[in-house]
Sequence to fold (1320 residues):
Amino acid sequence: MSVELDVFVGNTTIMDEEVYQFWLDGYTVNDAVKVRMEGGVLEECEASAEVLRSDTMDQYRTFQMCERLLHSPAKLANQLLFQIPPHRQAMLIERYYTFDGLFVREVLGKKLSKGTKKDLDDVSAKTGVTLKSCRRQFDNFKRVFKVVEELKGPLVENIRQHFLLSDKLARDYAAIVFFANNRFETGKKKLHYLTFQDFAFCAGQLISNWTVGALDNMVEDMDVDLEKEFLQDLKELKILITDKDLLDQHKSLVCTALRGKTKAFNEMEANFKNLSRGLVNIAAKLTNTKDVRDFFIDLVEKFIEPCRSDKWTAGDMRLYLTHYTNSAHILDTFK
Amino acid sequence: MPGKLKAKIVAGRHLPVMDRASDLTDAFVEVKFGNTTFKTDVYPKSLNPQWNSEWFKFEVDDEDLQDEPLQITVLDHDTYSANDAIGKVYIDIDPLLSCEAATVISGWLPIYDTIHGIRGEINVVVKVDLFNDLNRFRQSSCGVKFFCTTSIPRCYRAALVHGFVEELVVNEDPEYQWIDRIRTPRASNEARQRLISLMSGELQRKIGLKVLEMGGNAVVGYLQCFDLEGESGLVVRAIGTACTLDKLIPGTESKEPVFSEDPPHPLSVPPTPLRTLPSSSSPPPFSPSKPCSRQSSSSDTDLSLTPKMGMGSGISVGKEAGPLKTLLRQQAQSALEQREFPFFTLTCFPPGFLVHIGGVVSARSVKLLDRIHNPDEPETRDAWWEEIRQEIKSHAKALGCHAVVGYSESTTICEEVCILSASGTAAMLNPRFMREGSVCVYSRFDDASPPSCGFCHIPYDEFNMPFPAQLTYCYHCRRQKVPDVLFTTIDLPAEAAVTGKGCLIQARLCRTKKKAQGEVNATAISNLLPFMEYELHTQLMNKLKLRCMNALFGLRIQISVGENMLLGLASATGVYLSALPAPGGIQITGKTPSDLSYDQHISTMQKRINDTIAMNKELYNIHPLECIEEVVGSPIPDRQRSRLFRSTSESSDELSELDLSHGKKDAFVLEIDDTDAVEDIQSLLTDAPMPAGFYSCNTEVMPGIYNWTSGLQMFTSVRVYRLSNANLTNQGLNKIFTDLCENLLKSLYFKLRSMIPCCLCHLNFTVAVPEEELIQVRRHTPKHTSPILYIFPKNILVRSGENEEQLQFSMELCGESTSSNNQPTAKPSVSSSERCSPLPEVRSRSLRSTRSLPCGAPVTVVKMTPLSFLPRTRIVKYLGIINMFFIRETTSLREEGGVSGFLHSFIAEVFAMVRAHVAALGGNAVVSYSMKECVFMENPNKNQAQCLINVSGDAVIFVRESDQEAIPPLIMSGQPSTTGADGTT
Fold:
């Protein structure tokens, strides 16, 4: 005797959050049943493994049917097939679009193309995230990217409206889209110590300061691209390192401001020219797409690593950069 | 030409991509009614077309309005090839034909295709202008209201109950017509859907005419069924109860003229004084009793076998009450006499309607199907049902009753063999509901039997009992006699006094049968039927005793035929009626008492049973007041016989035929030598107990629980099992079948564990053994050999909040209380606040404020429930009957997730379409919802499957009780049942 067909359908769609998570994590039905059994649901309600299996299958089917709708979350609210209370809808969407920090780190800045998708099995093996889950997350990135690419206006707001995500998640997606669009290299070994949230913070800063939308909200262009004009303007910074007088002037201003405020003052003073040269060179090269991609690696190599070898603290760094910027403004050339 | 139908196509959304090249669709719409078709313009290159069409007007007869559905077809325009159909929407116009129901159908309806399922939605507006038709010879019956609800609908008052109406129409099944060999599956499915829609329309119209003839204006308890007889045709039949309903004007509901003369609730005899009676130490429970009698009637044809059951037992009319009752009976008889069939499909009655209950009456008959030659004269089928109804009527008479309530009919078909079944509860009714003028002349008779126990008193006379039974004086009023057990097909009357809680009781049975053809097969089935009924009954009785209960309500016995087996499934809700004597225990005896170890075995068994009984008493909170046992044996003193009034002459004829041979065996002494008994005991003890916090019943209201919350969840579950070994024994099959049912229940409990405390109400099981040919999708030769078991329960879950927090603002809402409380009604504003969630009140309340999704207009939440009411809400308007039939077929079964995936999405789609149609009518709930038919066929080898589903219900608008200025204490005082239930709360 075997169960040929086993179906359970409620007028209001019944969903178990725990099983939903298993499904999202790409567990097979068998694995999910195993984990649930170990979790002790069975003792709680005197059910048999068979019951658990049938329940898990039911839920998996429901999620599979919902998946199509989750691809365009706005549809979930006015579709007729499933009657799901609004707060459950929000939960479904939020969880569906939530991603693994480890996974996103692997694909951040890569082109969201078929080629990348093909390599997901390597990513899966490396991160321990199931291939199924990797694919879902990758497809989510791609979907959000595609939709937002065409839209005008602020990036985060667009994502939040089209995918009904929470503010936090919308910001993360904005970062992912921004990185994918500019193809920032994040996979190099030297960058491995940086988490996704580190990059997301940078992306946030870049979006709000370096893009077209940042300067002028009325402009029709969007937040995804760095502003060309601005990058062009950055070239003019070169004068800071090419003009010897200016360089010395700048250095003395910064040093005066820093003196006595930090333990690393001697190193700062000694390395000022190198560091400044490093920063300005990076900035001046950004008109090249190739150099934009290497932005983070350059930053680490040319600036962060020297500072780190001199044992700067985060506070030192902040102080240094603040005065570096402020002093530059005082210089005659930039007035 | 008395009607003008107007339809307007507004827009479409979420349409499928029909043009691969552009990823878009050039959609247009055809609107068809009868033979007239209109078209909209093509809206090019859009998945969300805005047609905003003009009003398409159809001028039609109201006869056609009733029969025909409005057919909307969405197509994709193609310049070079034929236009592709995207899908269809059938709209039943009927709700618009009654002035009290809906006035407009307007909203988003799913576009449905029988191959692809739902493909987008279309926004339509439909209206009807009706002109008054004064033609006396008209063929239409517009304006007659139909209700699936088997009680008087909540916002109406029954001025008059006219009685039974029935009708059937037959046709050839398009699936089996020659043309089906050449047309596409889609065309064939659509022809079938359309035909059934037409036939149900016609059926409803014809029944409406009968109602008008009787002087009524509504049909309550309307039950429509399809018999897919395969080659021999398609039968659509319906039964119902004709009534004259008056709409209650909000605010005056408390004054119900008909009931106004009812005496104040007579909580008559407090039980305490009875304890002082001398015989209080009389012998306890083990009084032998034979509650069941059966008759294998020597019917006229050898193919028609008609086992009948009279359940329940006799009662004497007390001396004083005797003459009164006689009078009453005469009155009632004259009122009912002119009726051919004094049957009522209702299961729930206005107070005072039901006087006494006799017991369950049922009749079955096995028939051989042959082609219906002339669809216009469905005489054979009519004659078959006529025969069965006559039989039911005579059974009822044998029980001294003049009416049958809770009446229903069903069929089961396996190839050319068809079993027709009918069952109901024999009862005495109060004639004033059936009289013109409805003067309350007889109301004083009610005084003789208080409502909380009156219905238990036996209608037939003690000295002429149709079957041997043990009688006692009523434990409630002490004045009249009651049987020791009572089986009924109706719901527990709201005013009944109950001790403890109720529970679902099921008897399951499997019997093998040799494969056979034609008459041989039919005879074999006929021969098996009485044994099955007997065993089901014994099982029910034993389980009832084991739970220490003494009455069954909502009894449904389903027998289904397969090629090589018969299945019987009986479900009912067990209750301890305070008026009936405490049930005896179960005693086990062995036939060979000499063997010591054997004795020991028996005594351990006995101990287990006793323990179970004790445990169940705790579980169901059954602690009856200790009353004296006054056993009034069935032997009748001769001197009294002369005084007795014999109800009908027929009844005595019936009695002489009764086969009492079963009476020799004591029903409650199980002899363990008997293999059957071993089996019985096994099945008794293997019934898994319900997990804590769960209650289940198959009636509308769970006896003994009154604090419902409004959070409810309806669900459907379908399971199909393939039996691995076709050559199983009866016992093996029984075990498998029982396990399947138990597993299904366990599975439900598990799924709903997050909702405890909760109650599964209206659990409705259906079993089928699809025959081999049916497993196939048509036009392919069968290859399967193993039988398939197929169960689908359709049920509802009602949350019952039992914790303190909810009790403080939850008020009893059961039975009649909704209609009897006198709050001013709030305006039926649907959109205002009715976004319900299946969560308990407390939680949903807090969530309501946080609900704010920024996308478009949210979809109206539509509740669905098989109950006739929604707890803690008030139904303010009935919008009309929902009766929909869908076919879904696939040729890519694997791609759709196998059979489970296919059926899962189909059921979800059916729910979606029901909800959409209700919302379009302006409603926010479906009550008395039921999935009447769910036929599933598959052929995995061909990667194909087909499924037919028929659903029905009443579309309503409800408002939350809390939205009105309802004051809980008022409800309390206005509710008669609280007093009876005091002991349990």
User: Anything to note?
Assistant: Chain A touches chain B through 47 residues (CB under 8 Å).
